[in-house]
């Protein structure tokens, strides 16, 4: 038997064994993840290609069967490898989209339609073995163009790997796609022996198998471990954020105790809200009952809404909170605007009252640029900030009020504010 024929059969046999083993591994896991289904479809197609290619060579060597039909089936299996490889790549990289899935579906449908001219011997025909054992066949110009279709799909899979090269630290899967792509392109060059395609495809399958086993892609325990690790990371992130919030609250409490200026209190509260909630838009609206309005008390770092809101405005959320004394959370407050010069509106908002008992002082309004930007924990945090701000503002106003005149029979050693109450000395 010629040496090249032996090389082809050995390469195809290795591809068949590795493909069958990988398919058994993926099927044995019994996982219903999309990546498993995509990999099974790809690897079974590779196994079918290797089997048909072996039968084709034995048919030509022993001069039995229908070599032309086997050649057509082999070409069909090899062509399906391109779309299925792209499908597996999207799942492996975690980038499945409807558009890419539609591209894969179009490719598979195109291969199905090409079966008509393929099996009518219009694309490839006349398979034969040379004296050295190399496989040759004739291909029409239309067949050459059609053969570029799986090449484009493999190139697309390679492009996805290139886009994700910084995120995917393991380059072996991308290298396997590159090897298979080179083999497929070499198949279209007349001067390149056909066994090059077989060898390159086998190397690609071997590298895919090694990557799957080394990374334990289909190991259910690894999947569970990765899920637990992700939960630990998320929980750690939450605890870190909570610790930072507690530190900010502690610092805010110390500063509010010492502050007797409303402007300073406003700045401290808004700055704490921005740092704890990671937002940029935050306003404090104070009630002016003499004029029946809410006056905005924010600093220059925020957006520029109207500086005054009527307390009787039935369409304004902030005014509604000031009237009712209840918090309002709008998960999706964003609205489209036709004015390009208009500032972007928030996607979610949270309005919390500032009150001491039944006495309303104002409203703390925070906004996020993402829908559902505030969790129940965020709501509790903003309410705590509003309560602290209300107490600090009441203390500041009481501190700045005019001194009281002591009633007859009383005297004090110092001039005292009306609040807080301090001891007075009785004079007899």
Low-confidence stretches: 336-341, 410-428
Strand order of the largest sheet: 5-4-3-8-7-6
Would you state the CATH class of the largest domain?
Answer: Mainly Alpha
Could you tell me the CATH topology label of the largest domain.
Answer: Rhopdopsin 7-helix transmembrane proteins
Q: Report how far apart the termini are.
A: 131 Å
The CATH architecture assignment of the largest domain turns out to be Up-down Bundle
Q: How much of the residues is beta strand, in percent?
A: 5-15%
Overall pLDDT metric: 80
Rg on CA atoms, Å: 37 Å
Descriptive terms for the model:
428 residues, alpha+beta, Rhopdopsin 7-helix transmembrane proteins, Beta-Lactamase, 2 domains, 12 helices, 10 strands
What do these coordinates show?
By secondary structure, this protein is of the alpha+beta class. The chain folds into two domains: 3-218, Up-down Bundle (Rhopdopsin 7-helix transmembrane proteins); 226-400, Beta-Lactamase (2-Layer Sandwich). Helices cover 59% and strands 12% of the residues. The protein is built from twelve helices and ten strands. It has helices spanning 3-29, 34-62, 67-92, 98-113, 115-119, 141-163, 172-187, 195-215, 220-258, 262-277, 317-324, 376-400; strands at residues 124-129, 135-139, 281-288, 293-296, 308-310, 328-330, 348-356, 359-368, 410-411, 425-426. Strands 5-4-3-8-7-6 form a six-stranded antiparallel β-sheet, with helices on both faces. Strands 1-2 form a two-stranded antiparallel sheet. Helix 6 packs antiparallel against helix 7 (172-187) and helix 9 packs antiparallel against helix 10 (262-277). The radius of gyration is 37 Å and the shape is elongated. The N and C termini lie far apart (131 Å). The relative contact order is 0.07. Residues 336-341 and 410-428 have low confidence and may be disordered.
